[in-house]
Amino acid sequence: MSEALQISNLHKRFGGLIAVRDVSFSLAPGEVVGLLGPNGSGKTTVMNMISGALPCDGGTIRLGQTDITKMKPHRVAKQGVARTFQLVRPLPTLTVGENVLLSLAFGHRRHWGREARELVEEKLAFVGLAGRGDEQVSNLTYIDQKRMEMARALASEPELLLLDEWLAGLNPSELKIGIDLVQHLQGQGMTVLLVEHIMEAVRALCSRCIVMSAGEVIAEGPSAEVLAQPAVIKAYLGDDHA
Ligand SMILES: Nc1ncnc2c1ncn2[C@@H]1O[C@H](COP(=O)(O)OP(=O)(O)OP(=O)(O)O)[C@@H](O)[C@H]1O
To answer: Which of the residues 181, 198, 202, 213 has an alpha carbon 20 to 30 A from that of 172?
Structure first.
């Protein structure tokens, strides 16, 4: 079977800074893989290139059989890629349901009228916001904003979900709810690339991790093994801990 996502020799410069250097990795269908690394190591830049938000300076990105390297974000979304952002950015004048409804326009299937409303309600129920579609976004607590962000991503019916620190800022009980939700998606066979700093979440969710440092992949493999590697500990905590 072909890989769900295949990244080869990805490269990105910002002026004189090489933010991503020769990065290659792949995700099998249904895998939940962690993309880790200290601040500034290039993780979000990789996510931005996969979603089409940033053009690549080199390398290729394939989604299944399709080369998406040069596609604009709306076309990447139509191919079945959805993402969440570090900071939830709802449209504040719209209701919760309307915020979710909007992302149907970016999905790879068309839904109208009642069918669209039912899909929105289904996604809201999945994330724990059943019956709350008519609420104002400003009423939502932080965890509920995160749930809405996830419902928005799922409403486009993606095959690959990019979660960029979606669990950040949650308290311990909310974190458990967030992890459960991703596990539920995992159970449904969703392929997920997860940028995350919370190791409890990485250990619970990711069978495999890719670790970046200063734009390069420095380790890749089963999570428990990778997280114990001296090079990874050094990248996160400095020389004294390696
Ligand atoms: N649009 C941009 N213009 C210039 N430099 C950028 C831009 N975006 C990112 N960078 C730089 O590229 C490097 C990688 O940044 P990136 O945000 O990808 O790291 P990250 O691993 O996601 O970090 P964090 O965990 O803090 O989100 C950093 O040095 C950052 O300052």
So the answer is: 213
